């Protein structure tokens, strides 16, 4: 709202014409001084407060907020950290979201075994994959790696995304031991952030 009012104020007070590559004001010097003061006022209003839809450290995409936690912890501790921040481990609802997340975390992975936890587990019932909100995995929307999930030694009950090269890069879900320490992706709805002074 402040931006709209300032923009209207400046447009009303300053009319410009473009002649021979230079902008020339048609207003009097007195009006120009008034306009310059108005621009300074607008700048001050904008810089005084910045409103964040997600909150500091979060990144907005598609109406959701994501926090890419590079601290390595277990799946349960990663989830607890996400919840402390007002979200939860990420639930992936579309191919587009998977594409965004995979491309986003690729640059944070040092190698092909530098994983990120997501909010998918079959800890309660083997083979029944549930998201952290309790909803079952949509079997028509999965991104398992080849031969995964394999439940290695009957203990891999939590899911990570890993770095995959080539055109199959989206198929990067891998079941892992929940006690292993990896990075994680947190998620919460957009619009739950706050305004901060700058």
Automatic annotation (TrEMBL):
Record has DNA-binding as a keyword: no
The keyword DNA damage is annotated on this UniProt entry: no
Keywords: Lectin
Protein name in the entry: C-type lectin domain-containing protein
Name of a matching Pfam family: Lectin_C
CDD domains per UniProt: CLECT_DC-SIGN_like
Domain called C-type lectin: residue spans: 61-187
Stored InterPro entries: C-type_lectin-like (IPR001304), C-type_lectin-like/link_sf (IPR016186), C-type_lectin/snaclec_domain (IPR050111), CD209-like_CTLD (IPR033989), CTDL_fold (IPR016187)
Molecular function via GO: carbohydrate binding
Organism: Kryptolebias marmoratus
